[in-house]
Amino acid sequence: xxxxxxxxxxxxxxxxxxxxxxxxxxxxxxxxxxxxxxxxxxxxxxxxxxxxxxxxxxxxxxxxxxxxxxxxxxxxxxxxxxxxxxxxxxxxxxxxxxxxxxxxxxxxxxxxxxxxxxxxxxxxxxxxxxxxxxxxxxxxxxxxxxxxxxxxxxxxxxxxxxxxxxxxxxxxxxxxxxxxxxxxxxxxxxxxxxxxxxxxx
Length: 201
Fold this sequence. Notes:
Shape: elongated
Largest sheet: none
Distance between the termini: 154 Å
Helix content: 55-70%
């Protein structure tokens, strides 16, 4: 009859034939090298990292529990002495106990007025300052040119009007009187006015 239980010899042979343990596997084995494989590898690395963190946390927690259960060599009084206190350092206390010295006065102000710190704010930077200045300069130059042109037009118009008035006066003076003679009095006044103007220029 056949044996119901495998012999020890069979166990040794089967153990030798077994593959060594290779850890855990995420995703299929036959993925081509590409985005899917890299994603699977990343997931596996993250899982390993998280497991290591959990292990180290468990070890720390275990150590902490052991440390708490073992009584420490410190007594409660020593712990109180080691804790921070609200007492001031002697040098600082001496500095605070000294009477206040008068601070030097700034521009005739008392120390109480000068104790309030006044921060001078820098003026807000204006963007395009150079461009604004250049535009302002160009605008002023254009205004000056416009005024010069307007003045020249006004003088030209004035001269034209004056010439026209002179022409009319001379035409009126040249027309003959009742007997066809020229009016020399009127003509001489127009000519005298013209001579005065030429001399004044």
